[in-house]
From TrEMBL, chains A, B:
Region called Disordered, residue ranges: 1-22
Keywords: DNA-binding
GO molecular function: DNA-binding transcription factor activity; transcription cis-regulatory region binding
Keyword DNA-binding: yes
Lineage, uppermost ranks: Bacteria, Bacillati, Actinomycetota, Actinomycetes, Streptosporangiales
Organism: Actinomadura luteofluorescens
SUPFAM superfamilies attached to this UniProt entry: Homeodomain-like, Tetracyclin repressor-like, C-terminal domain
Domain of life: Bacteria
A Pfam family: TetR_N
Name the UniProt record assigns to this protein: AcrR family transcriptional regulator
InterPro entries per record: Homeodomain-like_sf, HTH-type_TetR-like_transc_reg, HTH_TetR, Tet_transcr_reg_TetR-rel_C_sf, TetR_C_16
DNA-binding region extent: 43-62
HTH tetR-type domain span: 20-80
Keyword DNA-binding appears in the UniProt entry: yes
Amino acid sequence: MSEAGAGTRGRGPGRRPGPTETREKILAAARDLFAEKGYDGASLRAIARAAQVDPALVHHFFGNKEGVFVEAMRFPVDPSVLLPHIMSFPRDRIGEAMVRTFLQVWGDEDRRAPMLAMLRSAMTNERAVVLLREFVTSALFGRASQATEAAPLAIQAAAGQMIGLMILRYVLCVEPLASASEDELVELVAPTLQRYLAS
Amino acid sequence: MSEAGAGTRGRGPGRRPGPTETREKILAAARDLFAEKGYDGASLRAIARAAQVDPALVHHFFGNKEGVFVEAMRFPVDPSVLLPHIMSFPRDRIGEAMVRTFLQVWGDEDRRAPMLAMLRSAMTNERAVVLLREFVTSALFGRASQATEAAPLAIQAAAGQMIGLMILRYVLCVEPLASASEDELVELVAPTLQRYLAS
């Protein structure tokens, strides 16, 4: 497997082996630490320690903690993949498609952790709020509005429905929501999303 | 104004002046500190310092930090007041009543802070999750289900809609949601809640 030139930024020809693995190792450690400690609680030094690399390497790849955060908080499913997937459903089943897609992403613990880390950071840190707001506004809401032709406000109401539902199901774990099946939740919530996204 | 016997717990006849004010001062400081630092970040000592009382007094009134948290995280509007208010609307306007009530409570910064503190604590601390889950399950969802005769799952879907919307509006402050008027949000979201609560 050649890693040459892949995954490095700026300085140097990047011919040393393994920069991609190192970068991914740092991001994985950062996701875990942001998930556990929030934005303020996870220091760049602690991220380096968890990734078993020199802090200078983290600086080299990402500049500063914000840089690590922006990269690490990327949705585990890229919106540019997720949205076309949802839009590939017939228009009258787009609400159902959104519920099923959210449940599948959030149901996977490895993909849930970075999303919870984002939310947690946004709720404890003003800079993280700004970062996350910029991210969701451009990468999610903007694209979703273009794709569905729904008004931005309606897109945000749909997003709010799913965010709140996911918090109650996976963070607070309230019953019966935490144990409800995918089909039960589709029956319950899909008509709501359908109305917001395609009415 | 007589304070005798009011607001004290256990030990002593509570005849010393001002226990209610002291108790409220501690709770107000605790709310601010939980809002700012989350459950783990706010120490009992720091709460006492912010309330300008001796830490022993905090112990006396509330036992431990959990005790302070349970009291401090109480909804600023008691569910036993809030729910009858919502239920006083005609049944075909119950969705609208819920949206307006939530917006009025969350729109008031003094009432929003303790609710954000709860959410934040729940997202960073396992014990806070348990406490909050017990609270919302018994004090909110149970009562709402009884009052509306809606299924618990539908009540939770309605709550999820409002929680997510409030996070996007007041925490992330995404536009146009952050600047939308009460009437715009009623038009957008009330039909959703109406369907969950009374269909």
